[in-house]
Structures are given as C-alpha cells and as structure tokens.
Write a structure and sequence with these properties.
The chain is of the alpha+beta class and 123 residues long. The chain contains 3 helices and 5 strands; from the N terminus they run ααβββαββ. The chain has a single domain, classed as Trna Endonuclease, Chain: A, domain 1 (3-Layer(aba) Sandwich), CATH 3.40.1350.10. The chain is 30% helix and 40% strand. A 5-stranded mixed β-sheet has the order 1-2-3-4-5. A hairpin with a 2-residue loop joins strand 2 and strand 3. The protein is globular and about 45 Å long. The relative contact order is 0.19.
C-alpha cells in the first residue's frame, strides 16, 4: 500500500497494512482482514502453503507500555482461538492445518519500522 494511503489510516491499521505487505513478500496470500466473530477480531487471515494462518498484529510507537510481544494475554489468545473456530465454521473448513502467527510492528523514532514475525506463536 502506498505510504500516503497508510498515513490516512488509524494507528493500529498502519501496522496491519505493513504486516500484510511484509507477509505477502514472504509468499503468504491474505484471505481476509479484520474478521470478527462474537466480539473477537482476527487482524489477518492468510494462506502459507498448506497452512491457514490466523495473524495477530501488535503495533507500537514506543516501548513506554512494553514490547508489542508482551501485549498478547491469555485472554486475548482465547478470543483469537474462538474467532478462528468461528472462521473455520462459517467457511465450512474442516481438516485444515491451522496456526497462529504474531507480527509485531515497531515505529522507530527515525521514521523506519522494525518487524518481527513469530510463526506458530501459540497453540
């Protein structure tokens, strides 16, 4: 996505757009964005080879409130699992290999970004 389009998005969506582009460059195919099921949201749903991947994106502009990796609580993991089950059910997907990835996006003071990708971040 072009930088001017990203700049017009709410802060958290910036990170999601950057994460989606990052994953696409790695060969992932983005299937869905912002999937909501019973008050739980999955930021990105992607295909990586034979895997259906549910991606949580954590974005930070500073470490003031901790690292983005630290913001994934057990409660949030439960909500993501519930949303993933809903996605599978609503799309009538059975017998599909699935996993949860986390992509962290840090906006650095010099205007650059730093990304980390945690594959199969939790089960």
């Amino acid at each position: 996505m072009e930088k001017d389009k990203i700049a017009s998005l709410p802060f958290g969506r910036w990170g999601e757009e950057i994460a989606a582009e990052f994953l696409e460059k790695k060969g992932y195919f983005i299937l869905d964005r912002h999937f909501i099921f019973r008050h739980a949201e999955i930021d990105l749903v992607a295909r990586d080879g034979s895997y259906l991947v549910f991606v949580e994106v954590k974005t930070r502009s500073s470490a003031e409130y901790g690292l983005p990796e630290e913001a994934l609580s057990e409660r949030k993991k439960r909500l993501l699992r519930r949303a993933a089950e809903g996605y599978l059910y609503l799309n009538q997907l059975t017998g599909v290999d699935c996993r949860f990835d986390v992509v962290t996006v840090n906006f650095l003071p010099d205007g650059t970004t730093s990304l980390n990708h945690y594959i199969n971040a939790f089960e």
